[in-house]
Amino acid sequence: MGQVVTPATNNNVQDTSLITQDTSKNHLRTSSGTDTVVMKDDSGLETVVTIVANDSSWNEVSKNIVHLYKGAKVKYQDFELSADYIRLDRNNNLLYASGVIDHNGKYVGRPVALFPNDTPKAVDSLTYNYKTQEGKTFGVMTEVDGGFIQARAVRKNMYDEMSIYHGLYSTCDLPEPHTHFGIHITKGLVLDKQIIAGPSYLVVQGIPIKFVAIPFGFFPKQDKKSSGFLFPSFGEDAARGFALRDLGWYLTFNDYWDTEFRGSFYSRGSWEASMRTNYMVNYKYSGGFNLRYASTKTGVEGADNYGTNKDFNVTWNHTQRQEANPGTSFSASVNFGTGSYFQNTGANSTYDYDQLTRNNMSSSISYGKVFGDGKVNFTSSLSHRQDMASGKVDLELPTFSLNVATFNPFDSKDRVGEQKWYQRITVGYSLQGRNTISTGDSTLFKKESLKRFTNGFQHSIPVSLSLNAFKYFQFNTSMNYTERWYLQSIRNGLENTVNGFETVRDTIQGFRRAYDYSFSSGLSTKIYGMYPKIGKVEAIRHVVTPSVNFNYRPDFSDPMYGFYKSYIDESGRLRDYSIFEGGIYGSPSRGQSAGIGFSVDNNIEAKVRTENDTTGKGFKKIPIIQGLTFSGNYNFAADSLKLSTISFSGRTSLFNQKINLNFNGSFDPYQLDERGQRYNRFAIEDGKLARLTNFGLSFDYSFNPDASKSRSDNIDSLRNNMPAMTQEQSDALARISTDPNAFVDFNIPWNLAGSFSFQYMRRFDAVERKEMGDYTATVNLHGDFNVTPKWKIQFNSGYDFKQKEVSLTRFSIYRDLHCWDMSFGWVPFGRYQSYNVTIRAKASILQDLKLTKRNSHYNY
């Protein structure tokens, strides 16, 4: 069949550039000359063997052998071969190909063969019978279902069966695996659906571990995802003990969905189990759900505080492609379970700060449809909100809305010229419906809770008109009519009991309607101001946008409407109440309102000359204050406390717009009495303009803004090549885009970012009988840096100034092993004190991007 040819021993073939060729023997006269050989196949039909040589060729006519040099190619039916040296023996239908040793002593021009129904392979040398389609390769690497087999010799027959001799199986695609993890197979046979191996043993760091060798083995081989064992990680948790985490089994059912089962076990008796399923139909929809259960031991065994916490968590997400069903949408984002799940499990042993500090969970399943030429939009949803601290659960089963786009009822399609004022009147319509319940998570599924659902419908018809007035003003007027439909109402009264008279509430079943309406008219304009030049500041521009509006709403507690009734309570006082009290859309408001609303918006920016501009005429705009807004309302119809609180908000940028600072708050113009209640006396009467009731300030900053930009550019570059990716690569890239913080970017040498949040509020202290200030202030710092191009250290910490303690602190060390990755995580102190060590194979897409998986709960 041929001789084994290696770079070190190939002395028969030399670099033809160093040999003076006899051109009389070269029948390929051009640099890209071709030749053909006509022969008959097994059926007697004539076939053609095409041969090409970019450098030269030599035809031994007496032996019927052709020698091809430099960029040589041979094609026969579905078989193609290229190399720097090819020998074609037409007597035996035999090809031999190898590389050549160049003038630098390097072995170059290795053969690249494309066998029928296979991918191209680069080898050291090969022999191939193109008639029987049997060949033998030397120094070959081939991919088998995501793994790579390197073998000293491989023989392949016409049935696509390969025999390997002294092979190494690993997950690395390099000639010398980075990690040196692999399985050495002495002899083996690679068939269509399985690999049959002879004596095999593990090789680690180039050291054979033969004492764990197996005499033979059968391994399934498929051209699709296959089920298999999921390797665990190891570590220790201060509260739960030594850990064996994420041990499991992966199941694949078809090309559309798969499932994995995982379990974690701790030496002190705690355990966790989970089932994760992903599904996807190309160009239609994709999603997945995760069911997790945890049994966590607490306290000291034998003590009174010893016990077991049982928690669960369920998540589901679903996304529908827009082009799959135009005009219709369906999506789901579900996250519910026990409120203590993340705290008791350390966020699935990831110690994710955001998960550990979250205080609520929410879910939403929504459906939408657009019809009527896009003018009518219908949406519906099922949702849930859960307060993890109090255990309160709010369910909406379901909520729906029907919205009709605003239209001009008095305008005409055949109108010529500008609209008249009445043709500018716009009308809209919306219908909403809700069915809700609010209860505790411990009583959610009990029968009595299901009887406490409240429901209702609300219709809203807004009418508006907008005109230009007095050249510089914008005039707006509107009227809004709202009607509510309820299937129940309430009645309050007194009942004589053994303990005396008590207030009772009866629910009256039956259809009732409630309605209200309001009017509003307003003016707004813009005022521009310029301040003179100050130093390098060429000009300062100030834009003020004041607006004022008049609003009116009748008193719907008037008996003529029938929405309010009265009764005498147990203390003998006459009390008014709304028969729609507690209704899903509320009740028409009591009390007449006739007031003026006002707001003032400010934007200030500076125009500064740039020093690096060569023309000397360059300027740049620097925002000083953006969106500084003050707003409030004055109610003429109220008998007291006519002026509302004054709220304000704004934002600005610092240090060349690298820090975005946001602030907000509110002022109360009235004083408080000895019980902490507002009363009708302005604070300015005591020498204070107003009382500051709350103030908030927050900002974040990254010292290396190139970190996020570089990472986004890498992902965008790969996404552009999405059509050329495998499904596994596409899925991995989608997961990176969904949660970019779950991966470590080795392309960025360092990153340091921080955030600060401050909240100040005034509360009335009933004991001290005075208003006292309180605050919360936290700072968080996170970052990472490369110790070497292959080692990275990441950290996350913070400080709570109110509690005077360090927040969750975590250090992580990552080692890039090309086709593998290793990580070590350490929480040095606190409730979640622990460490964790993980070593696992890396998806091929991450090898190209140099991103390492950070959290163990992200799997592929």
UniProtKB/TrEMBL annotation:
GO CC term (a single one): cell outer membrane
InterPro entries assigned: LptD, LptD_2
LPS-assembly protein LptD central domain sequence ranges: 195-670
Protein name: LPS-assembly protein LptD
